[in-house]
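Hi there,

I know you've been waiting on this one. I reran it after we fixed the sequence typo, so this is the corrected version. Both the input and the resulting structure follow.
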Amino acid sequence: MGKIVLYLAISVDGYIADEQGGVSWLVGDGSEPDAPGSYPAFLDTVDAIVMGWTTYHQLVTELSPDSWPYEGRPCYVVTHRQEENQEDIFFWNGELTDLVDKLKLEHKGTVWICGGASVAGQLLKESRIDQLWLSIIPTVLGKGVRLFPEFPQELPLKLVGTEHWNGIVDLVYEKR
């Protein structure tokens, strides 16, 4: 059985994107510019990816328009749009919890919840996230897209790991 992991970068004040949805601020402080960070090792554990439409659209139009960055891994895009599936990219318009429950059973490694705030919030609310891996970027945005805009209940967490590199701090939590 796999593990459902929310792995995201956030600003110090809890935003995952600026007001325009931009992520150009996702950089460290320059103190270790060649440090690979946690992403390469994390990606090696990923068997499947889940993301919302906005994250997918930003990837294919802005961040990586010339090549799909997750080639060889099934990626499920949660959307209400009727889109044609592509190689390794599947458009899901069913219940989100049904999807992650299915993927958790089908995969032995990590099922990465890659974005965005709506997908993450729904899965946290329904207790489907096994681990939160948050990379805290050394930036205060002040406004933008919040990771947890209005969470309906308290979610007690246990810190199970930390890393730091290039001014970025990774905090890894599991539910208590």
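Quick highlight: Residues 49 and 75 are 5 Å apart (CA to CA).

Best,
R. S.
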